[in-house]
Amino acid sequence: MSRADSRARDDQGALFAVEAEGPFAGVVFNRPMERVFSYAIPGRLRPSLRVGQRVRVPLGRSNQPVTGYVVRIDRTAEVDPGKVKEVLEVLDDPPLIDGVMLDLTRWMAGYYACSWGQALDAVVPAGVKKQAGTRIASCLTVPEEVRLARDTLALPPRQAEILELLCKAEGTLTVADVCRMAKCTTAPIASLRKRGLVHTVKRRMSRAPVPGPLDPPSAEDDHDGKAPIALTPEQADVLGRLDPSLGGDAFATFLLHGVTGSGKTEVYLSAIERVVARGREAIVLVPEISLTPQTIRRFRRRFDRVAVLHSHLSDAERHRHWRAIAAGEIQVVVGARSAIFAPTRRLGLIVIDEEHESTFKQETTPRYHARDVAVKRAQLEEVPVILGSATPALETWANADRGKYTRLTLARRVAERRMPRVDIIDMRLEKPGKGRPLHAIGGLMRSAMAEALDDDGQVILLLNRRGFHTFILCPKCGSVLKCGGCDVALTHHKERHKALCHTCDAEYDPPERCPSCKFDRLHYGGIGTERLEREVREAFPQHVIRRMDSDTMRSPGAYEQVLSAFRARQVHILLGTQMIAKGLDFPDVTLVGVVNADTSLHLPDFRAAERTFQLVAQVAGRTGRGDRPGRVLVQTYAPDAPAIAFAAKHDYLGFVAQELPEREQKGCPPFGRAVRLIARGPNEAEVVAYLDSVAGLLRELADPSVRLLGPAPAPVMKIKHLFRYHLKLLAPSPAPLQTLLRAALPMAEPSQPIELAVDVDPVSLL
């Protein structure tokens, strides 16, 4: 049947599904389009095209070639066959996406209100999509009929040797490979090709030979050997409860709630050993890969083949790791949030360490939460998942209360070590010296530091604000200097002689006069880590001090260098932002100081108290982890705030009991679900008008159970010259929100230059 003859319509002119031109590839794109597009598969591509590959296809009226993902192959197409276009090129061999990942990304698209193509594009790293570290090479193959008949062929000795070499090779050989291995010129190869005994094909090859183990362990990694640590009774009990799931093929979610220093990592390691012994693989997600060298070192001591996926890998390295994981060469994958998409072949366990951390949330489309994606992937793969934390997210805790997750508890520290004593310092009682500003570290903190250092201990200081001064104020007119493109106060960085915007990274020269009233005596106020470092150096000049924040930890390996020096006691005082609050285990740290505990306490976000509690509790857990007792001092202007008071008592249960009723009263997660819509654009009035129209549409379509709050200016109203307004949707469950978004979003498409971002289960409301 010709293409023209195969068109069929009913009496109303509707298009029938057409079979004559099949098969058809169903293709989706990294664009906000819900539709799966049908493309005819030309005969030359039918043997090689498979689901999960990327293809080049013409799109739109201009037929511009674009890259898409094949999500299905159909015998029919729900389109006029006269309008079906053909696939131009297959980009991947083998496919990048397997069946489970297709199901997972389809779920992500529905849950996080994005297109299937956008979800698929997030799964594959850029280095893999670019096929970094590879090249197109001419390779030699032997037809199957020649392989079978090679013993009967009358060939010159050199040609016979080359043919035998190609037949026995474990992989693809290039012309250069054959010349090197057979110690010959290209002439005998050309003769074989001329006779049709050898064919030349184009293949994508690695630019360099693949080295042995990925990220081989260092001498420091090996010094403790591979022997597991003896388990505590609590750890053994937890593993006993995990064992049935680790040894079977069934989905289960476990919340491992363990106080800091209780040995959660050893539980992870022992659980993974059981999975690896069955020939399975494990994925371990950590909040920030560059901040947990100790954890990674412990994994490498226990397992031979560990892949570590982090932001400092080059595209070529990331591609190599991806291929090694996909080939089944890796036992354990350790990485940040995107490692949840690692292409393991026989997944047996997923572990999320510090599951409460906000860094597991992606802040660009698709705005997924790696913890929740991990639970969904575990369900699809029928494997267990362990969520570990000393301060679990309240959503996770509530899921355990409801029976969705199984709670496992480690209530005691290893070796029966005591939790450190925590003292709160009321900074309202601290008075500045005559003619001097208030110090970053008060008198009590300074005395405790001196005592700890004199006793040969080490000190960690946390201040979750970087820079020298956190604002520049005009005392005459009261204006605070802000970024020209953002509604954010500039931070003074004295070392660089710059005023920086920590939102868009814009740099300014500090002004000599107030831009508004021209007053020439500006006030520099607030305390950042740079100022704290200078003050500590002045107070303790005989001690070695290092600062860890995003200003000082720019170069690859900088984290590990500083932490190695601290571990070796070459550094006495370590100070920095929240990056030093996580995962560090140094037995000689006898004092931890929190310099300003209420930095995030008063932010306009319903999670502000929870985040404050988690940060203080986590950093407090960095001390008392060896044989020496630890002490924690918390400087705060809000000593009576429940988040700080409960953290000082290491009382997570008390904080939960106080915080959950407030959440329930407001209908905030975990007592309901939230969606945040953020509109942004260069013209404020247009943004407001657009979001007002969206709000009207949502009210018209919403189920009665959905509450709409706003529109209103976002707490940070302008970023990078774009005005930001938002509205929030609250409902008892996800279903009415998803139904509403599916109905409303296609009708709420903004016109350029306005953009609309949809954030399901938002972690930040700023």
TrEMBL record:
Gene3D superfamilies: P-loop containing nucleotide triphosphate hydrolases, PriA, 3(prime) DNA-binding domain. InterPro entries: DEAD/DEAH_box_helicase_dom, Helicase_ATP-bd, Helicase_C-like, P-loop_NTPase, PriA, PriA_3primeBD, PriA_3primeBD_sf, PriA_C. Residues 245-410 form the Helicase ATP-binding domain. GO terms for biological process: DNA recombination; DNA replication initiation; DNA replication, synthesis of primer; double-strand break repair. Its EC number is 5.6.2.4. Binds 2 zinc ions per subunit. Pfam families: DEAD, Helicase_C, PriA_3primeBD, PriA_C. Residues 205-227 are annotated as: Disordered. Zn(2+) 2 binds at residues 483, 486, 501, 504. Its cofactor is Zn(2+). CDD domains: DEXHc_priA, SF2_C_priA. It catalyses: ATP + H2O = ADP + phosphate + H(+); Couples ATP hydrolysis with the unwinding of duplex DNA by translocating in the 3'-5' direction. Component of the replication restart primosome. This is Replication restart protein PriA.
